[in-house]
Amino acid sequence: MFFMDKAKDKRDKAAMKDATGTEKLTIFGAQRSRRGALLKVMSSVETKNPGWFTDGCTEKRHKDVKGFATDRLYLSSDDLSYALGKRGTTRKKLAAASGCILEYVGQWCFMAGTEAQRERCRKYLKWLTAQRHGPVSLGSRDLRGRDDWDRVEVKRELRSQLAGNRGQELRRVEEDTSTFCFMAYNEDKSDERLLVFGYSQANRERAIRQVGYWLYV
């Protein structure tokens, strides 16, 4: 990654810079790596110059693109803060669990990856922000056909340990195993269980073992 200027001499370069106020940044590498780097640059620039990339931005969802593409989704200020987390930990968690590149440019969420990765990321983001308003319910219709989840039955008397200070233990499990975990009710709210999401089955199994260890040992 480096700045590229086609000006032939210093005077031409100075004139070009004065005229446009910008320089070209060139990014080389694999497609996924290039897009990840580009989105990080966009996020940084947008923070310092609001609207630079997002003025006129609209939502975009590549439903018919199976391969690599970038979707855009607008987030409210409150949802953005919740989905970012302290030092970006929540954003990184969703990206790791879904296998999707996830960056926030202003109040816009950019999701880059294959169709499966983008759809996982979009769902995880939806379920995450829903938690801001109270308990979440995920029933059989929500989970039917998905291959990225497992459940952990938690005894009623132990469920409180997944909140409060012990909730930090669950966050550490997520970080260590690249998963997204939360308590959710079934359709009729008659049962609450811990759901473990992530594209990697091996990572989900590791998360389940770790949760079982600190809950029951």
Account of the protein in words:
- By secondary structure, the protein is an alpha+beta fold.
- The chain has helices at residues 10-20, 31-48, 77-84, 89-98, 115-130, 140-143, 167-177, 201-216, and strands at residues 2-4, 24-26, 69-74, 101-105, 108-113, 149-152, 180-185, 192-197.
- The strands form three sheets. Strands 3-5-4 form a three-stranded antiparallel beta sheet, with helices on both faces. It has a three-stranded antiparallel beta sheet with strand order 6-8-7.
- Strand 7 and strand 8 form a beta hairpin.
- The longest helix is centred in the N-terminal third of the chain and has 18 residues, at 31-48.
- The radius of gyration is 21 Å and the shape is elongated.
- The termini are far apart.
- This is K Homology domain-containing protein.
- GO terms for molecular function: RNA binding.
Throw out a few tags for this protein.
217 residues; alpha+beta; Ribosomal Protein S8, Chain: A, domain 1; 2 domains; three-stranded antiparallel beta sheet; 8 helices; 8 strands; 43% helix; elongated
Helix/strand layout:
Layout: E1 2-4, H1 10-20, E2 24-26, H2 31-48, E3 69-74, H3 77-84, H4 89-98, E4 101-105, E5 108-113, H5 115-130, H6 140-143, E6 149-152, H7 167-177, E7 180-185, E8 192-197, H8 201-216
Antiparallel strand pairs: 1-2, 3-5, 4-5, 6-8, 7-8
Helix pairs in contact: 4-5, 7-8
